[in-house]
Every structure is written in structure tokens, then in C-alpha cells.
Specification:
With 174 residues, the protein is mainly beta. The longest helix is centred in the C-terminal third of the chain and has 7 residues. The radius of gyration is 15 Å and the shape is globular. It starts with 9 loop residues before the first strand and ends with a helix.
């Protein structure tokens, strides 16, 4: 999907969930973005932003991070500046992982999880994880650069049953 044939310059990824029920361990979800080389779009990521604040080149920034889903609005927000990415980068995969520090937890066990991907005010993708209830992590979409150098988006919902670090390294694989 592109806007006026110009491609997508900048996207915002937003994640929210409700706090865990009283007396239970908090739920901690994390946004993860993997940037892949155009020459190897399904290989190891050349940049990985998770649990940190920013990619080395400054094109992916975690603006808000929540350890428990408490608060109003979106709990985690990440900005992806596609137009500033090096030409060598051709694919960006967006995912969500549930922290597993307190034992295995799936999306079905998290109250009200939801992710939204925007281009300005246009919603490119939205997911509530009901299609992957037994997963502990999931990809939710991907941006790809076409031959003209324009970025497009497509939803890519795929569940994983793994820890966050393994998910981050493998979420963009074929």
C-alpha cells in the first residue's frame, strides 16, 4: 500500500495491552523491528531494535516503552523512518514479543493486546493477536523497498513459540 504513488516515508508502530489482573505478575510486551539487507531480505538482520531505544543509524526509534501496560493510550510507540534508510536496506519486519521472565505466556493470556501500524493518519495494519493465540511472539507486518526505491507495506501475521531474543533473530526468516 502506498500513498499517492510516493511510497511510505515514515511509519509509526503502536502497541497496547491492559495491565495483568490484580495479584498476578505483570505482562510485558515489546515491539521489535528487524531491518534486512536488500541483497538478503530473509537473512540475518543488519539492524535490530528491541529492548533498546534506537537503531545505530537513527532510522528506528522506540519513543515509549512500558513494562506492564499501565497508563492511558498506547503503551509502546516506535517510529520507523524508511526514507532515511540506506539504499542497501530493502526489508523491515515488525514484530511483538511477550517477555517470558515469569514463565511462558501467550497472547491469549494477555488482556487486550493490540498493535497498529500507521503512515501519518492512515492505518496500514492492525492486529489483536486472536489469529495467533498460542504464540509467545508474532510478526505483524513488513515494509519492502521496490525497484523504484519506494517503500510499501503488507500485513504479515505469523506466530512464534520462542523467547524474545530468538524471535528477534529469526522473525524475518523465510
Amino acid at each position: 500500500m502506498s500513498v499517492f504513488g510516493k511510497g511510505i516515508d515514515k511509519a509509526e508502530v503502536r502497541l497496547k495491552w491492559d495491565p495483568a489482573p490484580f495479584g498476578t505478575d505483570p505482562h510485558d510486551l515489546d515491539l521489535i523491528v528487524a531491518v534486512h539487507a536488500a541483497a538478503d531480505p530473509h537473512g540475518a538482520p543488519v539492524q535490530l531494535v528491541h529492548f533498546g531505544r534506537r537503531s545505530p543509524d537513527g532510522t528506528v526509534t522506540l519513543n515509549r516503552d512500558s513494562p506492564d501496560g499501565k497508563g492511558l493510550g498506547w503503551d509502546e510507540v516506535m517510529t520507523v523512518e524508511l526514507s532515511r534508510m540506506a539504499e542497501a536496506n530493502g526489508r523491515v519486519v515488525v514484530g511483538v514479543a511477550i517477555q517470558q521472565a515469569d514463565g511462558r505466556r501467550t497472547f491469549a493470556e494477555v488482556v487486550g493486546p493490540r498493535v497498529q501500524i500507521l503512515n501519518g493518519y492512515e492505518v496500514l495494519g492492525e492486529e489483536d493477536f486472536t489469529t495467533v493465540p498460542t504464540a509467545t511472539a508474532a510478526t505483524v507486518g513488513e515494509f519492502t523497498r521496490n525497484a523504484a526505491g519506494l517503500w510499501t507495506f503488507r500485513p504479515l501475521v505469523r506466530g512464534f513459540d520462542t523467547d524474545g531474543e530468538t524471535f528477534a533473530e529469526t522473525m524475518g526468516s523465510a
